[in-house]
Design goal:
This protein is an alpha/beta fold. The chain is 34% helix and 26% strand. It has 6 helices and 7 strands; from the N terminus they run E-H-E-H-E-E-H-E-E-H-E-H-H. The longest helix is centred in the first third of the chain and has 19 residues. It is elongated and about 50 Å long. The structure holds thymidine-5'-triphosphate. Its EC number is 3.6.1.9.
Amino acid sequence: MMDIILASQSPRRKELMAMLPYPFLIHPSEFDESTIKEKDPEKAVLKIAEGKAADVAEKFPESVVIGSDTIVFQQQILGKPKTAEEAAEMLRSLSGQTHTVYTGVVLMKDGIATSFAEKTSVTFWPLSEKEISDYAATEDPYDKAGAYGIQSGGALFVKEITGDYYAVVGLPLARLKRELDALLS
Ligand SMILES: Cc1cn([C@H]2C[C@H](O)[C@@H](COP(=O)(O)OP(=O)(O)OP(=O)(O)O)O2)c(=O)[nH]c1=O
């Protein structure tokens, strides 16, 4: 069988990927996300996922390469916060509201890209200023789009979710399995 390569440095994507019935290797991409200026969230995650996958596929043309990207959209694209102020500002904008998490996945095989994006709606309870500043003072928000981890501290903010939980964490697992099944059959 062809090697499957996950083009990601994310420990969470590695953990999720391990739930699929396929052995895989990891080669993080060196793609620079800031080169993508796209404002439409769905197009943005797909372009970035493709950039990540294509970068690694160039080095491993005989493999199936998986690139992925997750962003949070609440009136505007929320990426990863750099400071406690930025994290708190993002969390304030999500408080008591429903936002959309977009995860794009691109599978590259023999130079051909198979792409899909999953949209998940997440509703937060209203957050107190203390909840926000306490959470912004932890390490949790800083490597995560939208400044929260639904699988960690952010679990305490979520009132409702519609869509694939695993897409919010970083990989739409059930859909990815189906796409891989089709590509490898
Ligand atoms: C909203 C949300 C995001 N995230 C994470 C998923 C992604 O890892 C991260 C968004 O950044 P990404 O740029 O999608 O990914 P990454 O830089 O972590 O890894 P790589 O590009 O090498 O694959 O935010 C959570 O872990 N939990 C959440 O609830």
